[in-house]
Amino acid sequence: MNWQTLTTSTLEEILNWAATQPWCQAMSDCAQDAQWHAEGDVWTHTQLVCRQLPQLTEWADLSNREQSILIFTALLHDAAKPLTTQLDSETGRLRSPKHAVKGEFLARNVLRGLGCDLETREIICRLVRYHGRPAFLLEKPNPEQEVISLSWLVNHRLLYLFTLADTRGRTTDSTSRPEEHLRFWKMIAEEQHCFDQPYPFANDQARFLFYHTPEPNVHYVPHEEFSCRVTMLSGLPGSGKDTWLARHRTDLPVVSLDDVRDDLGVEPTDNQGEVAQLARERCRELLRNKADFAFNATNLTRQLRQRWLRLFSDYGARIELIYLEPPLETILKQNHQRAQPVPEQVIRRLAEKVEPPTLTEAHTVDYPQ
């Protein structure tokens, strides 16, 4: 089965296919806390959620793509529970901490293997990661800010419809997700003009500051005057970052971690502290001179990118993020053609940990195909 075939299949055909997959079989063997999931194991709940989707009043108004997105969100939203479920020794209750976070990565690997296109895949992965947020909105100190913040990560309309199905896809009257909470989420999103679109910040810098300051002010309208532009590359080894720069940013000086390693004689498997330090100094020199430049490294996770983004923003740079992800087979082939190829098993391991960048991180984000 591949993505194109599955998205033209019926819901029952998709469920029958899923039942043959190892991650699904693990859900069948994973018990849940009876107070919240009297229906039984994770796979039983998942099937109920999937079958609730076509019963939604809004279902017929969705496009085929939106319906596929919701079906696969439902299919994968709890797929990481077998990896995280544990018995609380104090309460005797079953818990699955961070199953949504781990579920994002599991979903990404499943969908990559199916050949799902990058944009659709990431929509599903982020819905999986944040699917539990609406239920706990009233526990947040600033519900409006929570809704606005998530609007640049997920489509609230799709998230709302999924959470309705998730709430109804269980056989217990005691639920941690009363539908009144979900309707409150929808109401706030509509009031903030971000139910079916991201929140309309005044400009790119207003959005950037909202996500990068400790106490953001959503109404602040900053003046956009930048000292320089930094083009930050992100992608697996062999994804074509050097080629992209050679074609699209020919005039820019480049700070490349690979080049720094070569200059220092440091292997990728060695300690990278000295490499990072020298790269930061080279970046600082360009930033002090207010020069546009490119920063070329794998930058595969949000945490790794944040260290560099803080540096660039401290100097008042406008930051554009370029994420490259051709098919994994293409990456492995291009890596093999490099002068110093990275071991294939390393690339496959890195692919399982990738977090593609979002517009919460930089002024612009592009996924060139």
From TrEMBL:
SUPFAM superfamilies: HD-domain/PDEase-like, P-loop containing nucleoside triphosphate hydrolases. Residues 60-136 form the HD domain. Keywords: Nucleotide-binding. The keyword Nucleotide-binding applies. GO terms for molecular function: nucleotide binding. It holds the Pfam family HD. The keyword RNA-binding does not apply. This is HD domain protein. It comes from Gimesia algae. The lineage of its organism: Bacteria, Pseudomonadati, Planctomycetota, Planctomycetia, Planctomycetales.
